[in-house]
Each structure stands twice: as C-alpha cells, then as structure tokens.
Amino acid sequence: MKQGSIYMDNCITSKPDPQVLAAMQEYFTEKYWYPGSFVSTGEEINTAINRFKEVVASSLNASPDEIHFSSGGTMANNIAIKGLAYAYGQPGGHIICSVVDYPDLLTNAAYLEKMGFDVTYLSADSEGFINLDELKAAIRPQTFLFMTTIVNHVIGTIQPLAEIRQILDDSGHKIYFHADAGQAYGKMHLDLDKLGIDTMAISAHKIHGPQGIGALYQRKGTKLGQLIHGVRRVDNLQTGGLNIALIAGFAKAVELSFADITATEAQLRELSNYLIDKMEATIPHVELNGPRGDRRAPHNVNISIDYIEGEAITMMLDMHGITVATGSACASQGLQANYVLMAIGKNHVQSHGSMKFTLSRYNTRAEIDTVVSKLAEITAELRKRSPLYNAIAEKEQ
Predict the structure, then answer these.
(1) Cβ within 8 Å of residue 266, ≥6 positions away
(2) Exposure on the CB side of residue 387, measured as CA atoms within 13 A
(3) Closest to 68 measured CA to CA, from 81, 50, 84
(4) Measured between alpha carbons, how far is 187 from 264 in angstroms, rounded to an integer?
(5) In terms of Cα–Cα distance, which of 183, 244, 333, 275 is closest to 33?
(6) Which residues of 226-241 are buried (b: 16+ CB within 10 A; e: fewer)?
(7) Rounded distance, CA 122 to CA 146, Å?
(8) Is 70 helix (H, G, I), strand (E, B) or coil?
(9) Which residues contact 139 (CB under 8 A, 6 or more apart)?
(10) How far apart are CA 143 and CA 155, in angstroms?
C-alpha cells in the first residue's frame, strides 16, 4: 500500500476537492489581478471577492460584509482575539477561556496575560465539556471576552454554545464571544445569527479547500482594534496581499461542503460510529475519549489503546500507507502527554496510548475495515512486547 493511500488525519488538513483545484486555476493563470477601481481587471476581482464573501456568509447565516478573508484560521483567531482586546479591553481587563481550548486561543490568552490582562482558565469534565458553573462564577464587571473552541480538536467534544451565550447575556453587561470553528465548520450547522457569536475563525483546508486561506466572521457592530498595519489590497483587517486564487478555492469548497450539510454530517457520523463499533468489537482494552453520540463532532474518533504507545502504532500504520494521528504528538509536536487528555482526567499512559482518527467524505467503510484490521495486528504485536500487558493478560486467564 503506497504512502498516504488511506488518510484519516483530516483534523490537520484535508484533500482538496478536484472542483476546488479547477476553480482556482483561472485566478493563477488568467485573472491574477488584485481588486481595484476604474480599471476592468480590478473591478472584475472586486466583483469576484464580493461573490466569494456571499458564499461563505450564506453558509453561516451571516452577511457578506461580516466576512473577512485571512491567510488562515490562526491569523483569523489572532485578528479577532487581539482586536477585541485592543478595542474593548485594557490592562486589568478580564478574559475567560478553558484549559482544553485550541492552542491559538491559549497562546493568545498567555500573550494577553503578559500584556497585563487577567485570564481565567475554566476546567473541563471527563468528556471535555467546560465547567459552566465555573463560567458563571468567573464573570466579573471587568470581563469583556469569553472564547471557546466549538469542537475540541483532540476529542471532538461540541461545547454547548447556546447555554454559554445565555450565561454571558445574564451577566448584566456585554461580554464578547469569540469562537474557533476550525473543527466545526463544514461538519455541522452553524447559524451565527442564532448562536450570538461575535467573532469566529474558520479555515479552508479543513473542508477540502486550499491551504493558506481562512476567514473571520465579525458581527455587525463589533469593533476590532487593528492588528496588522499596511496597504489594503483585499481586506481592512489583514492588510497587504491575499491570494485571490485561494479565496476562489475556499468559496468552491464551501459550496461543495454546504450543498447538503445535513447529508454530510450524517455520512461522517455513520462512518465514525462504524469505526468506533469495529474497534471496540475487534481490539480488547480500548477506550473512547470524549462523549458518544451527537454531543461529539461527527468526524472525530479518539481512543486510548492500553499498554502500548500511540507513537509506535502511528509509525507502523504509516508503513502500511495509513495516516492517522497520535494524541500526544498532536498536542506538543513531540512526545509529551496531550494537555487535553490530561485535563479531562486521563493519565500519561492513556494519553501516550491515544490515537485520533478524523474522517472526511472521501473515507469509506472498506478503508475502515482495512485500518481496523491492521490496527488489530499491530496492537497484538506490540502487546507481545509489553511487560505490563503480559502481566494483565496472565491475571485475566
């Protein structure tokens, strides 16, 4: 089996749809211009960008003028979080996030702490849901920003957005709500008009679009301090040049993902449920990390395989052309225990034995059968070398 022939690491990035590549081509070769006034080339790109914004806005029940293209989800998070702090905060101002948030949010929170802001980090329960009682208790008159990761990037937990918004509204003063939707967008319905989110970051390459482009939703009336300064080419928040071809590809990926989002979600959930059931029936001593059912993102399956290291499993699967992620390496770019798994009560052994499978519309049941079969073989082989597993096996006999 050739390298990457079965790909189940769509949390990191996803395969560009052929129609996305086709949509980009003319903006690389013919319509390579930037937006402008008074000349036909610039006006044509203005029209195209407005059309692309309409596509993205429609997928979120938002307005086109609430959409800002950026060079990725991380840039969108930075523009929003720092922009809200610059616009509404001041040293001593209070921000709330959680210990299980995506690194974009946590690193921005740490930066703002250094700048004199006060940050409260909420705990999470054993399934990765943030503690709403702690949220209520943490709010103070100086609180101006709450931020969360809609779908946890490690274990797929979907945070209760409506309940969070209600708590923020009950505070008696305006608390801005920022959300990272990198693992939620294109996998589930997100009606921003109903959810009451003020700013939100999304990314193209998580939904079979091109790498290097994303977008920020900015609710009307929400101010953002300027993070990036320079000449405006495409957007007033990320000044300078943005790749128009990538924006075209992003819009096409959105069209394809949201043509029938209900069917897409159902397909992904059926595949992930099949994967979970197959692994639990085939491999002893496996544990699902995070919630079951519709409180979990439809594409995410994270399990701990007891008594062996996830890094070893990942490398051996890779030798068979199967790409997945190990929970520990995903978090740290190294071999440290995953901070999300540790925060929800897992120990170092469970963290290091964790595997994450993130599915896409290109995956099939036949691929899952192959993956579980190979995983069972590898697990059995590695456990033969595990003194801890051998000791447990002897007790069970």
Answers:
(1) 298
(2) 0
(3) 50
(4) 7
(5) 244
(6) ebbeeeeebbebbbee
(7) 11
(8) strand
(9) 96, 167, 168, 171, 175
(10) 28
DSSP label at residue 33: P
Residue 292: exposure state from Cβ atoms within 10 A (0-12, 13-18, ≥19): exposed
How far apart (Å, rounded) are the C-alpha atoms in residues 209 and 160? Answer: 27
Q: How far apart are alpha carbons 66 and 77 in whole angstroms?
A: 15
Active-site residues, by number, are 330
Return phi, psi of residue 153, to 5°.
-70, -15
Residue 98 near residue 340, CB atoms below 8 Å:
no
261-282 vs 365-384: helix axis angle to the nearest 10?
Answer: 30
- pTM (two decimals): 0.94
Q: Are 205 and 358 in contact (CB under 8 A)?
A: no
Q: What is the DSSP string of 124-150?
A: B-TTS-B-HHHHHHH--TTEEEEEEES
Q: Which residue ranges form the domains of the chain, and what is each CATH number?
A: 6-14+261-396 (3.90.1150.10), 18-257 (3.40.640.10)
Could you read off the pLDDT tens digit of each residue along the chain, which spans 397 residues? 677 699 999 999 999 999 999 999 999 999 999 999 889 999 999 999 999 999 999 999 999 999 999 999 999 999 999 999 999 998 899 999 999 999 999 999 999 999 999 999 999 999 999 999 999 999 999 999 999 999 999 999 999 999 999 999 999 999 999 999 999 999 999 999 899 999 999 999 999 999 999 999 999 999 999 999 999 999 999 999 999 999 999 999 999 999 999 999 999 999 999 999 999 999 999 999 999 999 999 999 999 998 888 888 999 999 999 999 986 544 445 567 899 999 999 998 888 889 999 999 999 999 999 999 999 999 999 988 876 665 555 555 5
Non-local CB neighbours of 334 within 8 Å, separated by 6+ positions: none
